[in-house]
Design a protein that fits this description.
It is built from 14 helices and 13 strands. It is of the alpha/beta class and 412 residues long. It has three domains: 41-247, Alpha-Beta Complex (Spore Coat Polysaccharide Biosynthesis Protein SpsA, Chain A), CATH 3.90.550; 254-351; 353-412, no CATH class.
């Protein structure tokens, strides 16, 4: 911060508004365009972990500084990236005293960086934004007003998924509608609000117990965060006109280092199992939640990584750990009774042929189809209660085989 833009104690005037101490610029404010109030206890603390966000950081900073709700603090956590993002943050901080910068001693990842921001935050509500995304000018004003009006602990906005060329991704499923539906059916919030953690503000009091934090893995750190925080409250208000713009990314940590990605999603599931393992009785809603996570993990294990034969040992290790974690849940029996996918994982998953789950990929072989058909038949014989589901999947398998043969996409 340059000498002529430094804010000294003499340039600030204390005032009181509604019991909140507010610091405002005096007439001799520094050479900057800032005329916002600086609050010791702002309405919202915005936490951003910064690690190589690219040029999107410019738009992110601009959208934060341009908020119609000015009583916010922006906490940028420097996670030791190699691009010029932090230089841009420092330049903005020289003009805007609402910006605070925390520096990690080394690169630790987004989860631990957000946790550090939580410890430093002073706001009435906390928000978590990725530094290559951006928000509408009235985003925080709408969310804060909605939370105050409804007496809610969480106010969630609407997430717009946007491509790098500026066009929006067509959405056929909307999380906000799912949350409304499940709450109307008196289901707990954690079963519905399972992603889009960045599109909401959270009351500070939810963090006071010290047991709400992000995971330490490079991937899926937000899953345990949402489970923990949504288990504390069902008081949420949905505000569809508060827009968060999520920019699609092609540099996922999972795809960069697949062995680490396997480890991360396994650690994430083990953390979820640890959370529920203390339950004294089988819980229908907890079981439903775990099933949704299991389905997602199966998709990740067998679809994303399947081509890498050198990771077979890691696959088997991670699957065994997930299966062990699921089996020790107090409602593991309920998992068996409710879900074909869970049954595959718990009782049969590791025994399936290696090529079974590779059928969505190019260069499929006839032997892949035969392996999968044999697996379904064997599973149906071992578990008659799932025979109908296996029969339906065999029909789908036959249609896919016929399609591939017709389109000459099948490698015999």
């Amino acid at each position: 911060m340059s000498a002529d833009s430094t804010i000294s104690k003499e340039t600030l005037i204390n005032s009181s508004e509604g019991g909140r101490t507010v610091l405002r610029f005096a007439q001799n404010r520094p050479r900057s365009t800032i005329n916002q109030c600086i609050s010791e206890n702002p309405r919202i603390s915005v936490i951003l972990p910064v690690w190589n966000p690219g040029p999107g950081i410019d738009r992110c900073i601009s959208s934060l500084r341009g908020q119609t709700l000015q009583d916010i603090e922006m906490i940028f956590v420097d996670d030791r990236g190699t691009d010029d993002a932090m230089e841009k943050v420092q330049a903005a901080a020289a003009e805007d005293p609402r910006i605070r910068i925390l520096e990690n001693p080394e690169n630790v990842g987004a989860g631990p960086s957000r946790n550090r921001g939580i410890e430093a935050a002073r706001g009435e509500f906390l928000s978590f934004i990725d530094p290559d995304d951006y928000i509408a000018p009235n985003y925080f004003e709408r969310l804060y007003a909605a939370a105050a009006s409804a007496g809610a602990d969480i106010a969630k906005g609407f997430c717009v998924y946007r491509k790098g060329d500026g066009t929006d991704v067509e959405q056929i499923f909307f999380l906000n509608e799912r949350i409304r539906k499940e709450l109307s059916e008196r289901k707990p919030l954690f079963t519905a609000f399972t992603y889009e953690h960045f599109s909401a503000i959270y009351s500070r009091k939810l963090f006071e117990s010290g047991d709400v934090w992000y995971g330490v893995t490079r991937r899926d750190q937000d899953t345990i965060f949402l489970l923990r925080i949504c288990s504390k409250t069902d008081k949420i208000v949905i505000c569809d006109d508060a827009r968060y713009f999520y920019m699609e990314r092609n540099n996922s940590a999972m795809h960069k280092n697949k062995a680490d990605g396997l480890e991360d999603i396994t650690l994430s599931f083990e953390a979820l199992a640890d959370f529920f393992s203390g339950s004294s009785a089988a819980d229908e809603h907890a079981c439903t939640y775990i099933l949704s996570i299991l389905g997602h993990r199966l998709s990740q294990y067998f679809t994303v990584f399947r081509k890498d034969s050198h990771l077979k040992k890691k696959y088997a290790e991670c699957l065994e750990r997930v299966r062990f974690s699921a089996q020790r849940l107090p409602f593991s029996g309920m998992l068996r009774n409710k879900s074909f996918s869970a049954m595959v994982l718990l009782d049969y998953g590791i025994c399936l042929p290696d090529r079974v789950f590779a059928l969505r990929w190019d260069n499929r072989k006839l032997s892949d189809y035969l392996d999968l058909a044999a697996a379904y038949l064997g599973f149906a014989l071992a578990h008659p209660q799932f025979a109908a589901k296996c029969r339906r999947r065999l029909k789908i398998l036959w249609k896919n085989l016929h399609r591939d043969m017709k389109n000459k996409k099948l490698d015999l």
